[in-house]
Amino acid sequence: MGRQLELPAANDYFRPPAGARAAAQFSGLLHIAQSPIATRPRLKSPRIEGRDARLFPRITLGFVTSGDVLVPLQRGQIVAEHRPGEHRSHWSIIPQFGRVWRDPGEDGPWCRAAFPLMLVGDTENHSHQGVATFRYKGREVGELEFQFVQQTAPYLLQQHFLACGRARMRFAPLAPREAAAHRESAQAELARRLPHRPWTDLLRETSPGSLAGFGGPVREPWRVLAALVRNGTIYHQESSTPCGDYGYPPEMRFGVRSVMKSIGAPLALLRLAQVCGRYVLALRIGDFVEGLDPKYRAVRFIDAANMATGFGGTGTWTTHPNDPFDGYLEGDYDAWYSAPSHREKVKQIKRSLRPYPWEPGTVMRYRDQDFYLLGVAIDRFVKSLRGPGADVWDMLQREVFEPIGIAHAPVVRTREARGRRGVPWFNAGYYPTLDDLAKIALLYQNRGSYGGEQILHRDLTEDLLAARDALPKRGDLSLGGKGCAAAGAAEGELYKMGFHFRPYVDSRGKQYYLPTMWGAGESEVILYPNGIVSIVIAKALELPAGEAARSDAGPETVRAVERLEPFD
Known about the structure:
Blueprint lengths: L26 E6 L2 E2 L1 E3 L6 E2 L2 E2 L2 E2 L2 E8 L2 E4 L19 E4 L2 E4 L9 E10 L6 E11 L2 E2 L2 E8 L10 E6 L1 E4 L3 H16 L4 E3 H7 L17 E8 L2 E4 L27 H13 L24 H5 L27 H6 L3 H11 L15 H19 L5 H10 L32 H12 L3 E2 L2 E2 L3 H8 L5 E2 L21 E3 L2 E7 L5 E9 L3 E5 L5 E6 L17 H9 L4
Parallel strand pairs: 17-19
Antiparallel strand pairs: 1-7, 1-16, 2-6, 3-15, 4-5, 7-8, 8-10, 9-11, 10-11, 11-12, 12-13, 12-14, 14-15, 18-19, 18-27, 20-21, 22-23, 23-24, 24-25, 25-26, 26-27
């Protein structure tokens, strides 16, 4: 069966080597035993709500092969532990497309399979990017060897770490008809991906130095992956890890945290506006979510999407100048964040937060609770239209994601009693790939149109990208004035529908407000007026003492994009 290496190993161990030969086809279910995970460094607080982050979960994964591609049956899905036994793992798994081959020195019947997989939790939006491998011969399989060598920003576990281990597995056959169906769907899915090319190809196509600094000002040690989308192609840099470059960049799924605020609610509202009419923006949170403070009867969906509910009072009441993050993590934020069910989350909101004296829609105060409640309200509105079995995330998958070529959209949901399906988090919780983020950004840039179909409300999408009626983050519209880009110029950044609009003055002196998706840990997706999209996924939370996440070089990525292709 070949020798086992000490883990963590070089990442090259998990992909076909030079001279690899064709492998036998594989089809079956793998029942994977719960097993220890070794971490470097040791985890300081490995138990979260009684579940252990030092345990690989007991799960069952199905696989088939299509040529040399290993196809997970649950690709792009959050696979939770089943029958955990005495101790429960903190983790769930998201598997992705891998490869199969026969090692050059392997003279016997044994073949090898490898696939990327992510460790994720159901209590937050953190992901550990990893790889796994196993050997197979007919219906006989070896151990699963796995390691996790990169990660997006930690929060509950509060530290960066590597992880590795081995797990026993048991094989079970898969019905031939089911295997054939999965091969067919996998081929169709891969055919709809945008072209992915290495960064070196882009460097060869551009003038020397034009892309210098791309990925900054986030410092390189705290970047997970950086990419640029140009003319429908994704050019990605390597994802450097302590075990070498990660071998499957297009398969990486990221915990993007508040980037979700620019995706879930805006896409749902713009889709519903296209289907039902613009009035959906004026619906009131309190009419759809029970148990809230009476002030929510005056809070429109658009107010919550603009982080301007006039609620969440845990900071000061000073608004001129306004500090949009004043009191953001106060009011026992962690108790709310970790509360598993919707009822418990609302209970924490009622216990810790209170109304501010200003009216909704006038002052921007950053509150995750606003976007969570907005997601619940939109979900309840969808149910009122389409029946109690309807779900807002299902609507997005069927009516927005699938039409633009996103086959899977794993998301964190509340955990409800008796196995009832929870509500998707709209404050955070999405695990996209580069391909997913690129397609969503391009849908926005195309004013909500794809393939001749108007998926999102065109006028409202144009208004969003132009920052029309956006709120100045440092301002207070209750004092008078309008929240448009021109009126907010003196206030600096603007905010609207989950997007941050950051002022940038180009080399010719023209000012732009660049629509930016931003998530904790310094992840950013920026949409440019020249049609380009930049994506920087980072992990800059829980840094060592004295370590800086950003350099003082300014907007290096934006400058690089402008050098590559002027905005006008």
